[in-house]
Amino acid sequence: MNNYPSRDSLAKAVTIIRTYKGLSRGDLAETSGLSYPYICEIEKAGKEPSFRTVVLIASALNVTLSSLMRIAEDIEANKPLIAGLDEPVVPVLA
Q1: Which CATH superfamily is domain 7-93 in?
Q2: Residues 41, 84 contacting (CB under 8 angstroms)
């Protein structure tokens, strides 16, 4: 069994963290060194990012790789990061 979160869960995690941090997709693209269209495709779950790309995104979001993956795994498991909320929130990143 694969422990890597799905493309959809990773896309949601990136979008949630980026939004929580107040960054635009353009900001994330510039900081990560990835193209804006590629960031859009990742966030829309249209592209499966490589491990290197996930590392670049985590770094650009100023979170650890393990934090990004844990959030994606929680989304995958339908576990809200704060109980009672429909949309996961990222309090560990404050």
Answers
A1: lambda repressor-like DNA-binding domains (1.10.260.40)
A2: no
Query: What are the pLDDT tens digits along the chain (94 aa)?
Result: 356 789 999 999 999 999 988 999 999 999 999 999 999 999 999 988 999 999 999 999 999 999 899 889 888 887 756 544 444 555 445 4
Within 1-94, residue ranges assigned H as helices are 7-20, 25-32, 36-43, 51-60, 65-76
Amino acid at 20: Y
Cα 63 versus chain centre, distance: 10
Write down the domain spans for the chain.
Answer: 7-93
